[in-house]
Structure formats: structure tokens, C-alpha cells
């Protein structure tokens, strides 16, 4: 959203590009660097070079076979018929046989062409969809905060689909049109220079028409693809948030919003059709005028004896064939515009680089010292601001010794989750470093980081699959026994065993029956199984009831032993298992000490604790 305010470099016709500030529909385009679209298309086609050449050759031969027709007609009228009058049947039979041969060859070649080109197209689309998925998944959290899943869906469905249309229908049309133009012009000029010149001259107004259509259609198509994306975004967002929608009776407001977006899409569709209609009518006018002119002039010359009748017949047939593909050229331009707009959006997405990149030369963590599974964490002069908004952490220094359990408390918006996400490397600090046993998180490869730090959050997202599979995400190679042991350790086993299929219950099918607290327990088991050196719990027990939380705490006391743990919680009961408490306000640590000492003191935590005690009484 913020990225759209800048005009991409090299934009001289703002209306023709997505990401242009004057595009009223455009809230989602990413600036794609100049040439990125063409580069993407090239890189998609590069591995198919040989097959592209073969398909072009097939079309070349097929067109030659097709365009021989009128020439055979001219020969029939001017030579074969007179020979037949002299009782010589040979030339007529030759013409008929030649005609059939050409038809058969053209059919066979067309079939071969369809087969090879369909294969190329499928491979290109397969590659592109894969690239979009891989790339989007690799992009950092901050990207996904700006670019919603609705937009990503629109990129990998409608936008890929419009490229499919271009490849399946459009490109073949274009090559056919160009080839037939070349063949037919050559034939016409060869048959009769004068008539050929008329035909070639009529291509000038057609060219101008095509050019103006292209320019106007570009704008309309960009608007259309943005409009359909907006429809999808609204759809996905509403259905994802169906519970709050119901809770706040947002249905009619959403209906109204959706109606506006839907109408906008319909209007852009209408605009596109109108442009197409103008083009078709214009091109037919030019074509028919030229045919009429040629018939008039040709008949005059036939009457005067300077032109053979067969040649005129062939010339008129050719001329009609010359204009025939003009409508199809419009189709091509249609799918081309639509695909270009889509491809540019895809290129813009693919040009995004992760703001949290993988290291070029990863470093390894030192071997764990002794039996302790924990590691030391250091925030070294860290400053951090989200892309939007002011500084959340102003110069932050903190050392957590290996094996320490630290509770972080503080008011809403103090920066606790931000601290956690920096430690889990969802973001990189704007300045300074976060170190794990002395190694900058930025230098750790993904698998090393996964073994190093695991975060459990409030959302406790479950993927489709069984409960066991969801726990096993923590360590895919874990056995069923290990999975159950992890579940037992945090007190999730009983509820899982009570599900219809136990550990093999599909969470999507029974999603409604798994409560928020139960989901948190599954997420906990997943984290325990992962067995990380540093475990971060951000409000991870907030949905549990008091006994449930107690059970998890008891389990945690054993599980966390020796591990470094950061526990963020509003309920102060959680703090009791901590060795150390940090009180955060406005991105700074205002108190730091052992829980007992802080409670006994007169500071912020003592106040919080007193208030909490009172609320329990
Ligand atoms: N993705 C984001 N983009 C921009 N600003 C953000 C983002 N996430 C958080 N903030 C801002 O950063 C500040 C700290 O937020 P943070 O989530 O770290 O607070 P918190 O201490 O975890 O609060 P809570 O107790 O409510 O969970 C807040 O002012 C918040 O508005
Ligand atoms: Mg938070």
C-alpha cells in the first residue's frame, strides 16, 4: 500500500503501468523495476527455447500450405480451365490434387503445433505458479502485513490465468497473423505489383488503428485486473473474518462495499469490450474499402486486357485473407494487454526481496556446553522501527544468560511482542545486533535458527491435517511416541485422546470443536517437540483456564529447565516460574530483577503485583 506512492523509475506513461499514482483502482501494485516484466517472460521461456523454435517452424510450414490455396485457384482459372477446353485434363487434376495435399499438410502440421505448444504453455504456467508460491512464502513477515493474502491469491489465479490465455490463444494468433501478412503480401506483390501495392498501402491505416487501440486498451486492462483483485481481496477478507462480521452485523455494510467493487469490475469489463468493438468496426471499414477499391481497379484492368481474370480472383481472395486475421489480431491484443497487466503485477511481486534475507555465508552455532540445552541471548545496541510508524525500541541492550527463564511484563503496546519477534528473527533490527551464543541471528541459516529459537504465540494456528501432524511440525521426524510424550508433558493428552479419532483427528474437519485453549495446548506440544535452545512464549497461555495454565506451568518448569525462555504474559501467575522479571514501558526496560525482590520493592512491578493480588481476593 505504501509502496504505490512512488512512481517506478522510467515511467513515462503513467497510465499504462500499474503502481502509477494516478490509477484510481490501484491500491495493491508493487513497483516492478523497468524491464522486469520482459525479463520474467524471457526467463520463463528460456528453458523451452528448442521447443519454441520447433513450434514456430511448424506454424511457418502450416501457413505456407494454407496460403498456397488462392495461387492454385489462379492457376486453375488461367491455365487449367483453358487446357481442359483443349481436352487436356492433366492440369485440372494436378490442381485438385495439389489443393487436397495442401489441406492435408496444413491439418497435420496444425495438430503437431497444438501438441507441442500446449506442452510448452503448461510447463511455463507450472513454473510460474511455483515461483509465485515459493517467492511469496520466502518473503518476510512485514511484506505479508502489507500485501494481503487476497492479493496473493489474485496473483496466482486470475493473473496466471490471463497469461494462460495469452499463451494458449494469443501467441499463436500473433504468429499466424504476422506470417500470413508476410506470405500474403509477398504473393500479392509477386502476382501483380500494382494490386500488391494497394494491399500493402492499406496496412498503414490498419497499423495506426492497432496502435491507438493498444494504447487505450492498456489502460483499461490494467484497471480491470486491479478491479478484479480488489473483488477477490474483499471476498477473502470477509470470509476469513466471518466471526467478527457476524458479531458486529457487518453483513449489509460489507454487501454495500462489495457491490461497489463488483460494479467497478463490471464497468472496467464494459470499457474493455467497448474498446474492442471500436477496433473491430474500424478495421472492417478499412478492409472493405480496400477490397472494393481492388475489385474496381482490377475489373477495369481485366476489361482492358492488362490483367488475367485468374490473377484478379486470386488477389481478391488473398486480400480477404489478409484482413481476416485482423479481428484475431484484436483478440491477441486483448489477451496481450490483459496478460501484460497481470505479468507486470507478478513481476512486481517476484522483484520483492525478503527484508529478512538468508545469510550468504551462514555461520554455525557453537556446540552446546555441558547438558544445558539453553543458549545465551544478547540484544546489542538494538534499535527498531516498523516500516510504518515511529521507533518501537529506542536503543536496547539486554543479556539473557543461557538457561534463564525471563518473564517480560508491561502495558499494552510497550514493545514486548516486538522484542520477541526480533529474537525469533521475524524482523531484523534497524540498528545493532541480536546474538545467540555470540552469533548474529542474521548469520544463521534457517535450519540452525529453527533449532535455536522457537516462538509460540496467542494465535496457535493449526494447519490442515491431523492433530499428530500438527504437533509433528515441531520436528517432522518425531515418532508417534515422542509426539504423545510431548502432548502428555503439557497436559494435552487427555483432550486429544477424547477426540473421535484421537491423535488422527483431522483438525479442519473438527476445527470447530477444538477450542482456543486446546489449540494453544497443541501449539505448546509442537514447541516442546521442537526442543529449541530458546523458547519464546508470547501470551501463549492466555486462552487457558486457571487449572490448565497451572498444569502448563508445572510442565514448563521441567521443560524449561536449562533452556533459555522468554515468557510474555499479562497474568502475573505465569511470572512465578521465572528466575527474572523485566518490566517494559515504551520500548525500554524500566525494572529488572528477581520476582521476589521486585514484589517486595516499591517499583512498577510491585504496583502491578499488588493490583493483581487484590483482584484475586
Ligand atoms: N507490524 C507493525 N507495524 C507497525 N507498528 C507495529 C506493528 N506491530 C506493532 N506495532 C507497534 O509497535 C508498538 C509495540 O507493539 P507490541 O506488539 O510489541 O506491543 P506489546 O508490548 O506486545 O503489546 P501487547 O501487550 O498488547 O501485546 C505498538 O505501538 C504497536 O502499535
Ligand atoms: Mg504483544
Would you mind describing this structure in some detail?
- The protein is an alpha/beta fold and 617 residues long.
- It folds into two domains: 31-350, ABC transporter type 1, transmembrane domain (ABC transporter transmembrane region fold, Up-down Bundle), CATH 1.20.1560.10; 377-616, P-loop containing nucleotide triphosphate hydrolases (Rossmann fold), CATH 3.40.50.
- 61% of the residues lie in helices and 10% in strands.
- It contains 19 helices and ten strands.
- It has helices at 36-45, 49-67, 69-85, 90-138, 141-146, 149-191, 193-240, 242-247, 251-303, 309-350, 416-423, 446-452, 467-472, 480-489, 493-498, 516-530, 546-559, 595-600, 604-616; strands spanning 377-385, 391-400, 405-410, 431-436, 439-440, 453-456, 534-538, 564-568, 580-585, 588-593.
- Strands 6-7-8-3-9-10 form a six-stranded mixed β-sheet, sandwiched between helices. Strands 2-1-4-5 form a four-stranded antiparallel β-sheet, with helices on one face.
- Helix 3 runs antiparallel to helix 10 and helix 7 (193-240) packs parallel to helix 10.
- The longest helix has 53 residues, at 251-303.
- The two termini are 49 Å apart.
- The relative contact order is 0.08.
- Mean pLDDT is 84; it is low at 1-27.
- It binds adenosine-5'-triphosphate and magnesium ion.
- Adenosine-5'-triphosphate is lined by residues 145, 386, 388-389, 392, 410, 412-418.
Amino acid at each position: 500500500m505504501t509502496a504505490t506512492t512512488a512512481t517506478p523509475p522510467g515511467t513515462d506513461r503513467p497510465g499504462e503501468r500499474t503502481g502509477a499514482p494516478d490509477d484510481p483502482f490501484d491500491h495493491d501494485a508493487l513497483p516492478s523495476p523497468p524491464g522486469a516484466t520482459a525479463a520474467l517472460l524471457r526467463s520463463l521461456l528460456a528453458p523451452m527455447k528448442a521447443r519454441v523454435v520447433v513450434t514456430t517452424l511448424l506454424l511457418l510450414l502450416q501457413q505456407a500450405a494454407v496460403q498456397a490455396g488462392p495461387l492454385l485457384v489462379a492457376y486453375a482459372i488461367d491455365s487449367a480451365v483453358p487446357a481442359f477446353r483443349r481436352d487436356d485434363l492433366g492440369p485440372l487434376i494436378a490442381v485438385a490434387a495439389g489443393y487436397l495435399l495442401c489441406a492435408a499438410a496444413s491439418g497435420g502440421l496444425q495438430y503437431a503445433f497444438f501438441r507441442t505448444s500446449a506442452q510448452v504453455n503448461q510447463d511455463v504456467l507450472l513454473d510460474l505458479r511455483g515461483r509465485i508460491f515459493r517467492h511469496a512464502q520466502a518473503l518476510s513477515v512485514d511484506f505479508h502485513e502489507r500485501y494481503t493474502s487476497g492479493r496473493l491469491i489474485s496473483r496466482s489465479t486470475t493473473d496466471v490465468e490471463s497469461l494462460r490465455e495469452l499463451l494458449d490463444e494469443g501467441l499463436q494468433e500473433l504468429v499466424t497473423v504476422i506470417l500470413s501478412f508476410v506470405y500474403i503480401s509477398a504473393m500479392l506483390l509477386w502476382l501483380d505489383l500494382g494490386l500488391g501495392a494497394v494491399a500493402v498501402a492499406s496496412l498503414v491505416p490498419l497499423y495506426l488503428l492497432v496502435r491507438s487501440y493498444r494504447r487505450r486498451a492498456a489502460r483499461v486492462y490494467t484497471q480491470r485486473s486491479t478491479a478484479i483483485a480488489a473483488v477477490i481481496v474483499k471476498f477473502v477478507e470477509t470470509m476469513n473474518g466471518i466471526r467478527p462480521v457476524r458479531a458486529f452485523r457487518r453483513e449489509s455494510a460489507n454487501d454495500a462495499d462489495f457491490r461497489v467493487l463488483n460494479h467497478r469490475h463490471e464497468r472496467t469489463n464494459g470499457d474493455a469490450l467497448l474498446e474492442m468493438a471500436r477496433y473491430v468496426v474500424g478495421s472492417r471499414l478499412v478492409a472493405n474499402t480496400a477490397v472494393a477499391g481492388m475489385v474496381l481497379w482490377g475489373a477495369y484492368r481485366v476489361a482492358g486486357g492488362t490483367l488475367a481474370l485468374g490473377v484478379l480472383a486470386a488477389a481478391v481472395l488473398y486480400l480477404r485473407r489478409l484482413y481476416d486475421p485482423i479481428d484475431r489480431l484484436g483478440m491477441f491484443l486483448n489477451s496481450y494487454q490483459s496478460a501484460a497487466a497481470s505479468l507486470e503485477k507478478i513481476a512486481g511481486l517476484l522483484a520483492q526481496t525478503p527484508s529478512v534475507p538468508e545469510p550468504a555465508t551462514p555461520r554455525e552455532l557453537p556446540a552446546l556446553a555441558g547438558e544445558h540445552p539453553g543458549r545465551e541471548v544478547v540484544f546489542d545496541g538494538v534499535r527498531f522501527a516498523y516500516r510504518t510508524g515511529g521507533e518501537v525500541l529506542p536503543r536496547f541492550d539486554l543479556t539473557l544468560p543461557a538457561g534463564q527463564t525471563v518473564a517480560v511484563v508491561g502495558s499494552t503496546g510497550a514493545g514486548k511482542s516486538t522484542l520477541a519477534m526480533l529474537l525469533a528473527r521475524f524482523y531484523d533490527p534497524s540498528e545493532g545486533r541480536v546474538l545467540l551464543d555470540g552469533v548474529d541471528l542474521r548469520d544463521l541459516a534457517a535450519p540452525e535458527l529453527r533449532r535455536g529459537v522457537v516462538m509460540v504465540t496467542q494465535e496457535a494456528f493449526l494447519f490442515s491435517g491431523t492433530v499428530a501432524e500438527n504437533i509433528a511440525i515441531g520436528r517432522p521426524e518425531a515418532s508417534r511416541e515422542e509426539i504423545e510424550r510431548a502432548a502428555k508433558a503439557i497436559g494435552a493428552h487427555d483432550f486429544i485422546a477424547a477426540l473421535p479419532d484421537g491423535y488422527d483427528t483431522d483438525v479442519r474437519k473438527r476445527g470447530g470443536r477444538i477450542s482456543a485453549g486446546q489449540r494453544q495446548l497443541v501449539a505448546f506440544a509442537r514447541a516442546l517437540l521442537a526442543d529449541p535452545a530458546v523458547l519464546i512464549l508470547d501470551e501463549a497461555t492466555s486462552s487457558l483456564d486457571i487449572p490448565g495454565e497451572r498444569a502448563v506451568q508445572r510442565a514448563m518448569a521441567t521443560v524449561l529447565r536449562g533452556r533459555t525462555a522468554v515468557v510474555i504474559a499479562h497474568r502475573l501467575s505465569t511470572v512465578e516460574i521465572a528466575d527474572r522479571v523485566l518490566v517494559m514501558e515504551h520500548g525500554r526496560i524500566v525494572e529488572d530483577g528477581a520476582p521476589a525482590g521486585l514484589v517486595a520493592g516499591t517499583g512498577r512491578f510491585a504496583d502491578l503485583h499488588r493490583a493483581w493480588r487484590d483482584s484475586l481476593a
